[in-house]
Design brief:
29% helix; 5 helices; elongated; alpha+beta; 184 residues
Length: 184
């Protein structure tokens, strides 16, 4: 997060769907460091891999803690297709980690010292909104940029009805004009 405070109110500059992934771990046994530390380090390695190659689709992330036992990352993605693509790609570290975990689980070698979880949310345009007052860009705004709140509306209701402008040439066709019937 940059330290420059935006004066006034801003909103995230995201266009289209907002794709959010919450992914984390819970330390079930603190003394089992050799079980949970590799999981934590794996997440940092995946984030580094994604940061190196922006074409994979990760726009930004926030590291958070829910308790002394629970740590998670809020990730903002370009699209659900890019999120799925990263998760399933055999070339990416995530795929190797899940293969390893699945092998251990199948062999009955998972001891439950660390818990894993994730939640994915695909919010269509018009079903999310954001506002930030007198703070640096954060979360979705840090991932996508900021706009003055007036560009999307002064109220949450206005921001929730915002629609991205159509790219040139793709505007909806106007209602066809009915030809007048010839007068008799």
């Amino acid at each position: 997060m940059s330290g420059k405070v935006s004066m006034g109110r801003t909103t995230a500059a995201v266009e289209g769907d907002a794709v959010v992934l919450l992914i984390g771990m819970r330390i079930n046994h603190f003394w089992a460091v050799h079980h949970w530390l590799p999981v934590m380090l794996s997440m940092f390695r995946m984030l580094g891999e994604l940061k190196k190659d922006r074409s994979k689709g990760l726009l930004g992330h926030v590291l958070l803690t829910g308790s002394p036992r629970t740590y998670y990352v809020v990730q903002y993605w370009e699209s659900k297709e890019k999120l799925y693509g990263y998760a399933a790609s055999p070339e990416m570290f995530h795929h190797r980690v899940w293969k390893y975990i699945n092998r251990k689980e199948k062999a009955g070698k998972v001891r439950g010292h660390v818990g894993l979880w994730h939640e994915s949310y695909i919010s269509p345009e018009g079903s999310y909104e954001s506002i930030y007052a007198y703070m640096p860009p954060y979360g979705l705004a840090e991932a996508t940029g900021v706009l003055p709140v007036e560009r999307r509306g002064r109220t949450a209701k206005d921001r929730l009805t915002h629609r991205s402008p159509e790219p040139d040439g793709l505007q909806e066709a106007a209602e066809p004009v009915q030809a007048e019937a010839p007068s008799s």
